[in-house]
């Protein structure tokens, strides 16, 4: 039995090394990569976009300890959605990936890690989801969510206009004349991902329907996750300092680890 286990581990190492050498040779042609370490269980993965030419939003299923690549070039990054099945009621785990050699590794226990490229690409640390409330919203010392009412901005919060819309309202407290730039990523080519400038106390509405959610980027530098049907309040407190509330709760920027 010992010899058999050693032989299996040796064969797995040889196969994995060979797949890495072959699969990652095309890294220069892609900016988001997912490596599935599970031999028999497929990964079902999709990646959203900011409008890169020929970007595919399709769900790709792949297995056998091999990678899948997506061409994404926008510096604002991308959402990578892992789903548990292709049909029926689908659960999503959504992660943020940079588009500068972004690598996510799905291990044989169904956990997603951030990885690094090299002679033998491998997982570094457990990745954090962006779509789960426990990872999205800030809490106080008592463990409760911090709300817009706690912060004194409750009267400014916009009301939601429907399940297929995202309403965003902004206040720049540092300069009433200077607006705040906001952009929203997309899952369809017909959706608009341009920057919109919101003046003091003004609102903008994005039509979004995909349950995988979207990236919202403020002033081209601060990135948040938002779902269809949610409302957003942005308060700019100082240069590069914002309080952002989604559905009346204070939200964190997307985790990069």
Tell me what you see in this structure.
It contains two helices and 18 strands. It starts with a helix and ends in a 7-residue tail after the last strand. It folds into two domains: 125 residues, Sandwich (Immunoglobulin-like); 118 residues, Immunoglobulin-like (Sandwich). It is mainly beta. A hairpin with a 2-residue loop joins strand 16 and strand 17. The protein has a five-stranded mixed β-sheet with strand order 4-1-7-8-9. Strands 13-10-16-17-18 form a five-stranded mixed β-sheet, with no helix packed on it.
Can you identify the CATH class of the largest domain? Mainly Beta
The proportion of residues in beta strands is: 35-45%
The run of helices and strands is: HEEEEEEEEEHEEEEEEEEE
Number of helices: 2
Low-confidence stretches: 1-29
Largest sheet: 5 strands, mixed
Structural class: mainly beta
Task: Compute the separation of the termini in Å.
Answer: 39 Å
Query: Architecture of the largest domain, according to CATH?
Result: Sandwich
Strand order in space, largest sheet: 4-1-7-8-9
What is the overall silhouette? Answer: globular
- Overall number of domains: 2
The CATH topology of the largest domain is Immunoglobulin-like
Computed Rg: 20 Å
Mean pLDDT score: 84
Summarize the amount of helix as a percent range: 10-25%
Total count of strands: 18
């Amino acid at each position: 039995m010992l010899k058999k286990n050693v032989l299996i581990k040796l064969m797995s190492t040889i196969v994995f090394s060979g797949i890495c050498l072959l699969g990652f040779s095309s890294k220069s042609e892609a900016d988001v990569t997912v490596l599935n370490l599970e031999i028999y269980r497929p990964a079902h993965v999709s990646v959203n976009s900011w409008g890169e030419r020929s970007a595919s939003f399709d769900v790709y299923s792949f297995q056998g300890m091999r990678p899948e690549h997506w061409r994404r070039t926008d510096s604002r990054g991308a959402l990578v959605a892992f789903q548990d099945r292709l049909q029926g009621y689908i659960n999503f785990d959504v992660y943020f990936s940079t588009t500068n050699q972004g690598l996510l590794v799905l291990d044989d226990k169904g956990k997603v890690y951030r990885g690094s490229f090299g002679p033998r690409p491998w997982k570094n640390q457990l990745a954090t989801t962006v779509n789960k409330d426990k990872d999205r919203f800030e809490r106080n010392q008592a463990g409760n969510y911090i709300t817009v009412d706690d912060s004194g901005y409750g009267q400014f919060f916009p009301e939601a206009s429907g399940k297929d819309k995202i309403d965003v309202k902004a206040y720049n407290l540092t300069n009433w004349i200077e607006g705040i730039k906001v952009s929203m990523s997309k899952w369809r080519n017909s959706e608009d991902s341009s920057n919109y400038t919101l003046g003091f106390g003004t609102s903008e509405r994005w039509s979004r329907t995909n349950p995988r959610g979207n990236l919202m980027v403020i002033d081209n530098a601060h990135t948040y996750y938002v779902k269809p049907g949610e409302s957003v309040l942005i308060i700019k407190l100082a240069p590069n300092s914002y309080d952002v509330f989604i559905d009346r709760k204070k939200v964190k920027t997307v985790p990069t680890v």
